[in-house]
Amino acid sequence: MVDRLREILGEKKGKEAYSTLSREGRVRMGLNENLLVNRFFSDTLMAEAIKRVDVREYPPPKGWVAASAIAESLGVWEDEVLIGNGSDEILDLIAKVFLSSEGREAIVVDPTFEMYKFYTSIAGGRTRQVLTTGDFDLSADSILSAIGDSTKVIFICSPNNPTGKQFNRDEVLRVVEESGRLVVLDEAYVDFAPYSLSGECTQYENLLVLRTFSKAFGMAGLRAGYCVGNARLLKWLRAAQSPFSVNSVAQEMVRLVIENRKVYEAFIRQVIEERNYLLAELEMLSGVDAYESDANFILFRLPPGIESGSVVRRLGEDGIDVRDRGGLPLLENCVRVTVSTRENNLKFIDSLRKAISEEGKK
Ligand SMILES: Cc1ncc(COP(=O)(O)O)c(C=O)c1O
Questions:
Q1: What are the domain boundaries of the chain?
Q2: CATH class, 47-259 region
Q3: Tens-place pLDDT, residues 253-304
Q4: How far apart are CA 175 and CA 350, in angstroms?
């Protein structure tokens, strides 16, 4: 099957068969999805996944079909993997299991993914904010000194959303080794980055690594994310999870994506090439400060006096959706843009240039 798919890709059918715009005709560069996964390839795998399941039946409980394929690919045991309805479900489970009693607290390293605070507060816990360093790196000292009696969980997102920075490995491991707390390392974007701790995390008693099929593998609409870690820790989360939260098509698709990993690696390389291209283009815009990224998006700061909200609105009027991050700590007037196809990246740069110039005249 892989050979046939490679043949199809060689025929470049994907490019001709599908537009890179959304159904509403918009350029989606706001949610860190991956449009560089060839649509024809992905649809072919989906057709195969659908053939393999009978949707009249409930899915394999606790997502075991997907979980066993993931475990095998990472070289860990099956009970060291937990699959969820997106990694969002796993964040929700972590908050419910470890943060729901009165007074329990989680540390978040801001600026970061906002859902850690969301799930913690829904569960009834509190969050304590620690800031990154000025160049968006992680300071183990700042985290370690913020730990209090009620701190139960430390959320670390690396590569971090929205800065794109993958934290220094030794600093992350220092937090794991010296904190004495559960560390949740969210590696949603790690497939675009230099290193991952998912292969070695099971040796720690207090480290959970989260990964997802939504980003590098272009499966955001199917909802499949997972967590790797020590079996004793995962047992708590598994016990709190509903049995059928991961649907059968998603489970088969996970299996197929893993079987076709080599093809996806080519898509990931394309994202990295486009990321370099987009970064270089952004750096050429006068007054724009663009940050290096280890993910499939880029954060940039607008020239002084130009407001991120207004620029994002103007881009939206041009049909291009990006994310205003100017309201987050340390990110005044910053915007996050998802790396897309060359065609979309060019549209975005043109529209941004125009928006900055118009805003500069005000
Ligand atoms: C850092 C981070 N973690 C987790 C998620 C959620 O991913 P999923 O689609 O697997 O729920 C996202 C999605 O944007 C994210 O940016």
A1: 2-36+262-360, 47-259
A2: alpha beta
A3: 999 999 999 999 999 999 999 999 999 999 999 999 999 999 999 999 999 9
A4: 43
